[in-house]
Fold these 2 entries.
Entry 1:
Amino acid sequence: MRIAACIALLTAVASTALAAEIPQAERRSGYSFMSPDTKAMQDEDTANPGMLFVLDGEALWQRKAGTANKACADCHSDARISMKGVAAHYPAFEKALGKPVDLEARINLCRTNHQQASPFAYESHELLALTAYVAQQSRGMPIATGDDPKLAPFVEKGHALFMQRQGQLNLGCTNCHDDSWDKKLAGSAITQGQPTGYPLYRLEWQSLGSLQRRLRACITGIRAQAYDYGKPELVELELYLMTRARGMPVETPAVRP
Amino acid sequence: MPSALINVPKKARRGDVIEIKTLMSHIMETGYRHTASGDVVPRDIITSFTCRFNGTEVFRADLYPAIAANPFITFFTTVTESGKFEFEWIGDKGFSETAQASITVE
């Protein structure tokens, strides 16, 4: 009886130890897992293909759109000043909707409400380019998502989703990205899943892609049904991941293998 | 809206070996992929890249479907005088883009 209790206690201790969050000092960006070649590609702006999207985003920022015939620059003027540090706070709470929105959704809200234009499709070149341009203005600044107390219940939902096992492989995000980030999967580093550089240029995609695209790819990887783009579950996951990466510098546009 | 990123040193000494880096925005569609309904996605790649210095060709490359999107081409050359590098990318569907960069040789 006493042995059984001991085993139960030990298992409980082991499982809590496994499920623990990664301590601040051990947090590592996906960058630190990359090869020197891929790091060099991210480090130099003329070699980083994500910068091509940033250039396009800069042009889009100035372009008038919609029936209001306004450009982003007409309200926000110089993005280098007005958008500095903004991306480091996203996803943020949107009062009108009563829920958090990510940077892509914020740009599309601006388009529909203020420019009176049709929203960009998820993963369209335009949306990725504008998001990358806005997020790049926060490069090097520490991630500060989650200051708003109204976000707390949504962070909690995202956290629950992060811990929840699902799919045919019956894995939760935590099983790889908290428990096994120092190991490899099919020769590739597993990484901690810190979303420091989105939208980022993934060599496998040969394109820039959003955090939602990355999450959907991961969910498909554990053979679960991926949530559609823009679904609250994905935004809550994004939100939790960004609060989990608080204090880490923004790298947008990052490069990943 | 194709855009290019060029990295040429602004200054060099006569006879220096310099590295030139170019990055061109292009999807580089191989022509070997099919859509869900079975149609071939037509090939759309850059086929040729040329670099001229003061009108003289110093580097040329032919590109093929195996080259990844947004081709990144770097090469070395020596400089003996100040002048202008002109870059030209030519590809399928009438793709044609140019860019230039100047260098001062001391």
Entry 2:
Amino acid sequence: MNIEKRRNVAVTAVLYIVLIVITLGTLFPFAWMLVSSIKPEVEIMAYPIVWLPSKAIWSNYKEIWTIIPLATFIRNTVVLAVTVTFLQVITSSFAAYAFAKLKFPGRDILFLTYFATIAIPWQAYMVPQFIMMAKYFHLNNTLWSMICLQAFSAFGVFLMRQFFMSIPDELCEAARIDGMSEYGIWGKIMLPNAKPALMTLTIFTFVATWNDFLGPYIYLTKDEVKTIQIGLRMFNTQYNTSYGLMMAASAITLVPLLVIFLAGQKQFVEGVAMSGIKG
Amino acid sequence: MDQPTKTKRLAGSRLARHKSLVAYSFILPNYLGFAVFTLIPVVCSVLLSFMKWNGSAAPEWIGLDNYIGLFANIGKLSDSFGPALRNTIVYTALSVPLTMACSLGLALLLNSQIRGRDFFRTIAFFPYIASLIAVSTVFKLLFIPNDNGLINGILKAVSGFTVKWTTEQWGIYFMAILFSIWKNMGYYMVIYLAGLQGVNKELYESAALDGASKWQRFVYVTIPEISLANFFVMIMLIVNSFKVYDVFYQLFAGPDNVLGKKTTILVYEIFAAGLRGNNNFGKASAISMVLFALVLAVTLIQFRGERRFTNR
């Protein structure tokens, strides 16, 4: 019995050590980023790592705003992320209501076209999409291009439809008998009942838009419309020598994500389990 | 037909039409955007893959020539499609099982009753939502191929040699795969955790009564019980690995924004053929169709597998 007990303690200890090592490994790049952002340039690459810089260069956090138009990039990204998320949540919950709760001719065929496209990666039609947007709609180098691109995904419709189907039909029927319009049922009954799915969709869309790289990289080549991810890439090329600045700018872009993540942690975890397959 | 019934029926059909119109009005905003910005480009992509078009001259139907061009050129000096296909497949074949193993291992560790479980889970998940561009820069700096990089510094201190991470083929795969695992492990861990929560506890108890060791319980109880989660994770990982772009681009493209033969992947080839003024739209679309075929094959396997799982 005693041996058994001692063995259990040993197993638990090993478990904690493994977990702590993994956690440190996960956090290491973030810690390195933060420390490097205030280090003198020579200490960034020094080996062994200098965890306590000889002097803190806080000016990096001031310079990043002038060396590239970082404020413009952040403003563009916020505008995009908010607009796309708003449109995505409204239009897909709107469409999902009809697919889940209304009967009308052509419903299944329309839904099938959404369904058929989940297997098609965006990367496989990004070129014709760009030709269309740039040549015929003249939307390249405007934020509209990214809004059109990201606001109408099939994913949102799927997620919301799935959730709406779990809300009992009787609720809608009762409201209809009371004389409520379909729009009223959508706004006053379905949406309040679908808060978890709405939160998940909001958070996922916002983060995806904030982090998107390839879309903005293709469409937004002028400084005044670039997003923050493209801006970071500018440090990578033009200001190759200043790793400190690069790290400071990187850290800045992670702040909103960290705030959203800590606030909506539960939704993230539930959302991953709920959404199942997301391309 | 007497008058009242007729009016009733007319009113009825008008009501039905009104109801349909209301339904369409719900669908229209999203569907319009979806049809214009997704459906039309998808159809164009398929059609363009059989055409020769540079955007200014009239498009010309050339049948399978784009595809033949891609595959006939493999091995030639100018060919970058072959290396892209190879790199994409090698990256997928290695990163998928490794990410699965790490995610499952982490999920098993964090499924036990330990203090600070939520804290550990939270930290493991964060890299997944952290911006790839920001965190990949750190990896890039840590793996700087000369003696200045941290990883090379450690290697030199320990064993005396250093690795040219961004020019050695295995070093390139190693960096890309290590980074992917670090970035995505937390996401798939959450899916595994959901699967592990669904495992019937009684199965463990009866297996333990039968004298099964911990390892035997894992192999004969846990693995079969979470096969659905396992399957989903595998499919998602494969599809996402086929579509990889930013990992390679961010880790390996220099100031010229170009990926060479050792670092190119399918999506980059689509990009390079069809965008940034290289208006070889036929070739870009043909590569797109190869990517689509790979993803479609995996999706079909998924549907068959799903049916098997649900029929069980």
